[in-house]
Design brief:
Layout: E1 9-12, H1 18-26, E2 31-45, E3 53-55, H2 56-63, E4 81-85, H3 90-100, E5 116-118, H4 121-130, E6 134-139, E7 149-154, H5 166-171, E8 177-185, H6 190-200, H7 202-210
Parallel strand pairs: 3-7, 4-5, 4-6
Antiparallel strand pairs: 1-8, 2-6, 2-7, 2-8
Length: 219
């Protein structure tokens, strides 16, 4: 929508790609990136699932189909039901790049064909609560720890597993933390500039914290 010139602000949970910036510029639009908050991507399972810790390598093996049974990661002898956001989700893209492909630029792994693509965060959490063998991911602000089990994650095998919290995301110790963006067509001014300044100010950043996301450290 920003590329097409139909919005003042585009919210995004991933950075714009070079080709998208080029498309915008070809339409006479110069995208300006604004980081407005930090999000921890939480890996979640059913509360009955005994697995509480996983590494990114294990997650990658699960989501590529190399591991298909929970017993191979310390759980029950049961099939792993993979849940993901749909391909047009920025969260899906982030998970593909940082978990499935482990942040490796040359890695071409893709989601296993039996992965269930869910249309929303609610779709993922609803299935997690219903299915004891399901695993999925969501922004920390959307997770309810009373109804979903949050998995601690290790950046690689053999290192400490870290739980996603506001503190660990802010410190950068949780390995699946990411910035959240707003993009404007050019530098914002007038009411648009006032709005961005309010978001980045104390009141806006308090709302970020209240919603379970991570405020920017300078605020």
């Amino acid at each position: 929508a920003l590329i097409n010139g139909t919005v003042d602000i585009a919210n995004a949970s991933r950075a714009m790609k070079d080709k998208e910036i080029e498309e915008a510029q070809s339409n006479g639009i110069e995208p300006v990136e604004h980081i407005v908050a930090i999000d921890a991507l939480a890996i979640i399972t059913n509360l009955e699932n005994p697995v509480g810790k996983l590494s990114i390598q294990q997650l990658s093996d699960m989501y590529t189909g190399r591991i298909t049974n929970w017993k191979d990661v310390g759980g029950n002898d049961a099939p792993i039901i993979l849940l993901s956001r749909e391909t047009n989700s920025g969260t899906h893209v982030y998970f593909l790049e940082e978990v499935v492909r482990k942040g490796e630029n040359e890695n071409t792994d893709i989601f296993a064909p039996h992965t269930l693509l869910m249309p929303s965060s609610v779709g993922i959490t609803s299935e997690i609560r219903r299915n004891p063998n399901a695993i999925g991911y969501d922004g920390l602000g959307y997770v309810d720890a009373e109804h979903e089990k949050i998995i601690s994650i290790a950046s690689e095998n053999g290192v400490e597993h870290i739980a996603p919290t506001v503190e660990t995301a802010s410190e950068g110790t949780y390995p699946l933390s990411r910035p959240l963006f707003m993009y404007t067509a050019g530098e914002p001014s007038g009411e648009l500039g006032d709005y961005l300044n309010w978001i980045l100010g104390a009141d806006g950043q308090q709302i970020v914290a209240d919603l379970g996301f991570v405020p920017l450290t300078e605020n």
